[in-house]
Structure formats: structure tokens, C-alpha cells
């Protein structure tokens, strides 16, 4: 089938490349000329494991452009995957979506096109996009006859760092549409994934437990709400284990054992129960805020979601409190942060706990040293005020240091030969912000090991 994807960020790029890999003819449109140039050269503008390999495998079916006229006319499906950042009041800023919808309408030239919203948008946005498309299309002097289109919602559930596997082997596909023809088109588009009939990419074998993928077909509003409800649930699951973690620290319980004991109950499940400095990234913060904002439009409070947000913010401050308890005075102390990305396997720094922790430490007069095996380059560009504190190598972090904090559990840190660094530190204190290091081993190596909870 012929597909156009608008926006080549984490979501649009993964969607476009994956669909091209499955044999669809895909054109990706982005206004960012640099991104388009890089992608045309086979280079991936984001750090996403496997993406450059998949780009190479999908290349015969894939093209990149800044022109809607090269992608939209003739497409059976147009995906819109532009950013929807938080506006001042917490509601999503829909400017990018509006502009993309207007541009799509100006280029539509096909008997039936499904315009699919993949961005995370407030409930009701599907109808809003539909109205923009119709209005913009009606304003065209050159509008062709016989053009029909319908809007569908197809929320995205991929995780950064795991984007390709989450797309090719998803837990479910959700399609919201009030138009049966759209559903039929999208069902056809996704059939290889739904039935798992494709041959996986050479670098990504099919998981042994992969089965046919459930298709959840709903009305537009339900699909839009599923996305927010799922993200908020994952966020509050993490906040819950972190709240329990703080109690565990007080009563002398081991939160990792507590989480394991809880997670083995299949009704709870062990995933997203890893205690630590809390969640970051571009979506949990934005989407929980948007859910609260949407509810307030209907005079509805969302106390559980609000509490999850507060607990998450508190975790970042708790990391600093733990250091203060151990070192008593933070002023003048040298503190190294290991990991700047909001989680491993991505260079994404949006709402990363490391940013708040670094700023809180600086505000208390500490001298910070920052390190990340992958995100440092991007950090330098996006965080110019904190960039002078970056350290190129780990010696620069540990040397004469009063404490190091594991903020992001990159494999490089977990597999580090920690014995090499203990002698460099002035005070060999390690704060494990992810409960990811082996406490006994660290103690054997001569570190004073402290975890965020306990
Ligand atoms: N990042 C993630 O892991 C996930 C994101 N989402 C949602 O998907 C949406 C997109 O997120 P990301 O891919 O992270 O965003 P992103 O910021 O990485 O990428 C958005 C892309 O859209 C392009 N763009 C903006 N306006 C455009 C326009 N009018 N025409 C053409 N291109 C345009 C930008 O240049 C950029 O390349 C958001 O609503 C987000 O909440 C959903 C699931 C996962
Ligand atoms: O809407 C989105 O953008 C996406 O948001 C999350 O994906 P992502 O933000 O990429 O990353 P996650 O793996 O969910 O991690 C989010 C944050 O939670 C933290 N986390 C995760 C799991 C856990 O047990 N504990 C924990 O603290 C991570 O360190 C990270 O900071 C969701 O998992 C995706 O399903 C969703 O599509």
C-alpha cells in the first residue's frame, strides 16, 4: 500500500521505516531539511538501536522529503506523527498538528485516504483534525473531484530505545475510527504485524512468545483515551513503587525484594515496578499533565494522577537529600552523575531526572561532573548552561570525587570495572539511583553503597 508519514521523530520515523520494511511504499515528510538530508544519506538523526540497519533494509521502499506534494497525493494512508508538547497551562500544544493537517489537506489527491493521527492528542482531537482537513480542503481552488478522506486514531505505544521491537512485535494495535472503510484499510496495512507473517529483520529475531497481535478497534475518543490512560497507569505504577520505596527505607525493608514479591502476583506484574529516581522522558510528564488538564475542562479532579506526578518530582529531590544526609554539607563537594539520558539506550534528555538533580546540587553549592556514554553530544547542544560540567571520561568524574550517583542504568555503568575507580575518589560513596548495582559487590570493592530507597 502507499503510505505517507508526516514527522520523522521517534514515532514517525519508526512507523515509516517499519512499514517500508514490511513492503509498503512509504514517503516520510518532515519540515526539518537537516533531518531529511541525514535520512536520505541513510543516517539516523536520533540514537535508536537498530534504526540505521532497518533504514538500510527498508531503503528500496522508502523516501524522505520536505514536500507534502511528494508524499500525500495517491497515499492510501497518511500518518501524522508530529510533536504535541505541553503548553503553558499543561494542555498539549496542537500548533504542529494543526499545521500538518492543513498541509495534508492542501495536497490530498486520491479517491480515499485515511488520515491517521499517531501523535498523542487530547480526547476529541480526531474530530478537530477532521474539521481542519475539511475546511482547508474546501478552501482549495484546485481541489480535485472525487477525493474522500476520513480521520482515524492509531495511538503509539513504543518505548524509546526499544522502538523497532515495540512496533514489529507490539502487545496490541489500537485503531479508533468512526468510519468502517478506514478500519478496513488500516487492518490491511497492519495485517503482516497482526498475523506476524513477516520475516523479522536480520538483527531482531522474533521473540519466542510472539503471537498474533490483538487489534482493538474503537471509536475515536476511546482510542485517544486509551493512550493517555495507559501512559498515566505506567507512570503511577512507577510512582507507587517509589512511594513504597520511601516507606521501605524508613522501616528497614528492601524495596527490590518488596517489588519482586509484589510483581510475581500476575494481577500486578513485575514490569514498570523498578524503583529509582523516577520517570522522565518526553511523554509521561506531558501526558499525565494533559490528562489532568482535560479532566479539569469537565470539572473533574484526577487526584491519583496528580499524586503520581508529585511523587515523581519528589524522587529527584530525595536523591539530593540522600547525598546531603551522607555528606552533611554539599557546598564545595564534587559529585559525579552517571547518566544524563532519561533512560538507557536513548540520547533523549527531555525531562531527564539528571537535569533536575544536577541543578539542585548546583543550587546547594556542589561541584558537579556529568557523564553519559551516548547523550553527551546532544547534552552539549541542548543544555548549554550545564554543558561546562560535562566530563569526557570517567576518570574526570571519579577523580577526587565525594560521591557518584547512578542516574541512568546504562549497561556501560553496570558492567564497569568499578575496582579501577574506587582509589580515585576522595570519598568512595555511591548513590544508586536505579537500584541496579550489586550492593554487596560494591561494598566488597570498598565503596559505601547507598540506594535511593533504603
Ligand atoms: N517519543 C516517544 O517515545 C513517543 C511519542 N509519542 C507521541 O508521538 C508524537 C510525536 O512524538 P516524537 O516522535 O517523540 O516527536 P519528535 O519531536 O521526535 O518529532 C516530531 C517531528 O515532526 C516534525 N514536524 C513538526 N511539525 C511538522 C509539520 N507541520 N510537518 C512535517 N513535519 C513536522 C518535526 O520536525 C520532528 O521531526 C507526540 O505526540 C508524542 O507524544 C507517542 C508514543 C511514543
Ligand atoms: O508515549 C510515549 O512516549 C511512550 O512513553 C513510555 O515510553 P518511554 O518514555 O520511551 O520509556 P519507558 O521505558 O516507559 O520509561 C519511562 C521512564 O520511566 C522510568 N522507569 C521505567 C520503568 C520502571 O520500572 N521504572 C522507571 O523508573 C525510566 O527510567 C524512564 O525514565 C511508554 O512506556 C510507552 O509505551 C509510550 O509509547
Automatic annotation (TrEMBL):
Gene3D superfamilies found in the cross-reference section: Cytochrome c1, transmembrane anchor, C-terminal, NAD(P)-binding Rossmann-like Domain
Question: What biological processes does GO assign it?
Answer: polysaccharide biosynthetic process
Q: Which Pfam families match?
A: UDPG_MGDP_dh, UDPG_MGDP_dh_C, UDPG_MGDP_dh_N
- Keyword Electron transport found: no
Report if keyword Cell division is assigned.
Answer: no
Q: Locate the active site.
A: 283 (nucleophile)
The UniProt keywords, alphabetically, are: NAD, Oxidoreductase
Pathway(s) annotated for this protein in UniProt: Nucleotide-sugar biosynthesis; UDP-alpha-D-glucuronate biosynthesis; UDP-alpha-D-glucuronate from UDP-alpha-D-glucose: step 1/1
List ligand-binding residues for NAD(+).
30, 35, 84, 120, 160, 286, 350
Q: Which reaction does it catalyse?
A: UDP-alpha-D-glucose + 2 NAD(+) + H2O = UDP-alpha-D-glucuronate + 2 NADH + 3 H(+)
> What are the GO MF terms of this UniProt record?
NAD binding; UDP-glucose 6-dehydrogenase activity
First-tier enzyme category under EC: oxidoreductase
Q: Where does substrate bind?
A: 157-160, 227, 272-276, 280, 343
Family statement drawn from the similarity comment of this UniProt entry:
Belongs to the UDP-glucose/GDP-mannose dehydrogenase family.
Task: Please name the PANTHER family in this protein's record.
Answer: UDP-GLUCOSE 6-DEHYDROGENASE TUAD
| Protein name per UniProt | UDP-glucose 6-dehydrogenase
Taxonomic lineage from the root: Bacteria, Bacillati, Actinomycetota, Actinomycetes, Micromonosporales
